[in-house]
């Protein structure tokens, strides 16, 4: 996990375990993590969050599922059937810790958080333009694909070639530089550390 001190412009980035942050207790206004918290030791991380946050400070954890969709005119349904084929082929290579989706890990962590002020949200859809080759390249960064590549590089590469060709056929184009719209489905939770009781301060 990387963190940036408030004076980040004049400081170097630092790397450290999320469960052992190099900040003073009660010194942090906002602690965030993007698509990483599913690897943390949940109880230890939440204890560390409570240690470093100021009273009134917030923790926000954000991630997305491996159920991205592609949109392009009237072939969107066909594109998503192909995407589903791609993702289904990777499920056997997902880390057992993650299961078929990491969302449950975030829900469990949310339930473990003892702060009374907290919010869970899922269904945030973010659309961005991407090329077919860009989409394939993104999926190739997934840990499940990297495991597939280690296990059977020939089959992993063949899967990418086959999926790319199917997407191009559906779009009726010949170049993987063709644009589509990718829909990423995010979920997040945010919690606020209680303020100190003024009568006890």
Automatic annotation (TrEMBL):
It comes from the Eukaryota. InterPro entries: Diverse_substrate_MTase, Methyltransf_11, SAM-dependent_MTases_sf. GO terms for molecular function: S-adenosylmethionine-dependent methyltransferase activity. Residues 14-60 form the Methyltransferase type domain. This is Methyltransferase type 11 domain-containing protein. It comes from Knipowitschia caucasica (Caucasian dwarf goby).
């Amino acid at each position: 996990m990387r963190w940036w001190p408030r004076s980040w412009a004049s400081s170097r980035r630092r790397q450290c375990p999320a469960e052992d942050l190099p900040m003073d207790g009660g010194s942090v206004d906002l602690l965030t993590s993007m698509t990483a918290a599913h690897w943390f030791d949940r109880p230890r991380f939440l204890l560390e969050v409570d240690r470093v946050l100021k009273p009134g400070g917030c923790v926000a954890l954000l991630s997305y599922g491996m159920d991205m969709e592609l949109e392009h005119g009237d072939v969107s349904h066909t594109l998503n059937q192909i995407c589903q084929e791609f993702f289904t082929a990777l499920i056997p290579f997902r880390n057992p810790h993650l299961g078929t989706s990491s969302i449950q890990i975030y829900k469990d962590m949310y339930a473990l958080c003892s702060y009374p002020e907290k919010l869970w949200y899922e269904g945030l859809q973010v659309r961005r333009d991407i090329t077919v080759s860009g989409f394939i390249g993104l999926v190739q960064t997934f840990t499940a694909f990297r495991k597939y590549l280690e296990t059977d590089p020939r089959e992993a590469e063949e899967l990418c070639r086959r999926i790319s060709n199917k997407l191009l056929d559906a779009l009726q184009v010949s170049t993987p530089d063709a644009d589509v719209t990718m829909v990423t489905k995010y979920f997040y939770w945010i919690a606020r550390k209680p303020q100190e009781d003024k009568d006890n301060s």
